[in-house]
Sequence to fold (253 residues):
Amino acid sequence: MSTQPKIKVENLKLWYGDFEALHGVDLDIYEKEVTAFIGPSGCGKSTFIKTLNRMNDLVENVKIEGTVELDGKDIYKKKTDLNLLRKKVGMVFQQPNPFPKSIYDNVAYGPRTHGIKKKSELDEIVEKSLRQAAIWDEVKDHLDRNALSISGGQQQRICIARALAVEPEVLLMDEPTSALDPISTAKIEELVAQLKNDYTIVMVTHNMQQASRVSDRTAFFLNGHIIETDTTRKIFTNPSEKETENYISGRFG
Ligand SMILES: Nc1ncnc2c1ncn2[C@@H]1O[C@H](COP(=O)(O)OP(=O)(O)O)[C@@H](O)[C@H]1O
Ligand SMILES: [Mg+2]
Fold:
């Protein structure tokens, strides 16, 4: 295992107005691993994953304390370049959310905003990203089709391709398969297993089989705390905390 975590979170607290949603969370996330967040609805998984690329900055009345370091640098420092941060730390959401544009323009969007204009260069990035997202063969003959006209499972892989097109280092995925059918879900799980060769992946899932299938490490969240973090194998076979055991054995949540 690598020694230096890719992301190091220390004593992270987050309030929505007066409501404290995260109560001092610590977590190390390692490079080229899949880290899963599990826990019952409302325990702070989405809130926490969004702190990793400062998506909560977009929510009103949010207050954050503590540190989140990416490669040893605190991303909450005033001088952080948010565009660069979100280029390095990309995100895929629960509901596929392609832009109402062609498949090609969805994937080319990020590279274009970062100044790439040459058609041949964009073509290359679009193809590479769609291949990485395991959807090239399905869409290569109609890249000009509106991305909203394809199936939900395909839309989600377009969103993954869109995230990969700017060459991120970390990919955050918040319940990326919860709106998808079982076949599309299996495709995304296979894809995640592939992508971890090149990327650091953080994935929220309320599907425990999914966490145990795809992740290397698992963090169990409860009421705005991380109760336990360990290898996925340990969490699912021999957790240290009673609350984790109760949750994974289906006694609540
Ligand atoms: N924008 C918001 N404003 C106020 N409260 C919020 C907001 N988003 C989430 N919360 C609250 O924060 C808590 C954690 O929510 P969330 O992070 O979405 O949990 P999870 O993803 O684990 O289901 C919940 O009590 C939720 O109601
Ligand atoms: Mg959530």
Notes: The pocket of adenosine-5'-diphosphate (ligand 1) is lined by residues 16, 19, 21, 39, 41-47, 59 (CB under 6 Å). The two ends are 32 Å apart (CA to CA).
